[in-house]
Amino acid sequence: MLKKLRLGLAVLVGLGFLSLYMNFFQAAPWTSFLARIQFVPAVLTLSLGTVAVWLVITLLFGRVYCSCVCPLGIAQDLFSHFGAKLRRQPKFQYAPANSRTRYIILILYIASLAVGFHLFFTLLSPYALFGRCMTLVVHPLAVFINNNILLKFSGLDFFGAVVPVEHAVYGLLSSILALALAVAILAIAWFKGRWYCNTICPVGTFLGILSQRSWKRIGIDADKCVKCGACSRLCKSACLNIREGQVDNSRCVKCFNCLYVCPKGAISFTSRPASTEKRAESATAQQQLIPEQTST
């Protein structure tokens, strides 16, 4: 159920942003709302209410924003899905977090914002990256197809009425840079899933710090887990350590693939993950044994 809810919301948000940036016809009024609730724009415009909502949601449920509201994350999921389908080798596998790189980039990102170094800031901002790729690459390509291909067949009933669309002309260098960034990020997603979100993206790192201590988290029940690895192969964040029975919730983007695929129901999304409870009980038992061993 959680996975279906996440997919439904992601599809709705993705179509909304597609409508907003294509804008061949009048975009639906609610699509502009999607732009206003993005995390970084909310911070820059001092929309404290929006920022507070996302902080509370992250503290309660983890990185929901990254899962189904960030358009760049949704685009990566799409490419990651097809990449996993077409590869013959195992889809994904656990990898330790590159924490040093993540935190250094986050510090540089905040510093660039503080001193007004906008180039570094915009190159790393996920929504700015998405907007630049859509404006400089996807939209001009769609306009070219509409004006130069579909118009030639507009008389056919299959295509219906096709009208020419005017578009702005952008610099070649800006378009090439946007295309290069888009190709790089989507190529990484094709092979490595959410690696960009969990290594480079400063928003993902910041929300990950909060998500690590969120009220509800993904956990593995050691008594039920048979270490089949089914969940790990579907974890696009590479954060499920089956061998140790641990989940790095700072990198988990709450796709809920692991809940859906686990054959034993060993994975849960709860306020007290089973793996955490087991470790706590084990630590308590060991502490109780120490005085007994000392007295003997």
| Structural class by helix and strand composition | mainly alpha
Order of helices and strands: HHHHHHHHHHHHEHEEHEH
> Number of DSSP strands?
4
Distance between the termini: 53 Å
Q: Quick check: average pLDDT?
A: 82
Q: Oligomer, anyone?
A: single chain
Radius of gyration: 22 Å
For the biggest β-sheet, the strand order reads 1-4
Unreliable residue stretches:
156-162, 280-287, 289-296
Largest sheet: 2 strands, antiparallel
- Strand content of the residues, in percent? under 5%
**How many separate helices?**
15
* Helix amount: 55-70%
Shape: globular
Task: Provide an overview of this structure.
The protein is mainly alpha-helical. Helix content is 61%, strand content 4%. The strands form two sheets. It has a two-stranded antiparallel ribbon with strand order 1-4. A two-stranded antiparallel ribbon has the order 2-3. A hairpin with a 4-residue loop joins strand 2 and strand 3. Helix 4 (48-61) crosses helix 12 (202-211).
Topology:
Elements: H1 2-22, H2 31-36, H3 39-44, H4 48-61, H5 64-68, H6 71-86, H7 99-115, H8 118-124, H9 126-148, H10 172-192, H11 195-199, H12 202-211, E1 217-220, H13 230-233, E2 240-241, E3 246-247, H14 257-261, E4 267-270, H15 274-295
Antiparallel strand pairs: 1-4, 2-3
Helix pairs in contact: 4-12, 6-10, 7-8, 7-12, 9-10
Write a short abstract of this structure.
This protein has 296 residues and is mostly helical.
Key structural traits:
61% helix, mainly alpha, 4 strands, 296 residues, 15 helices
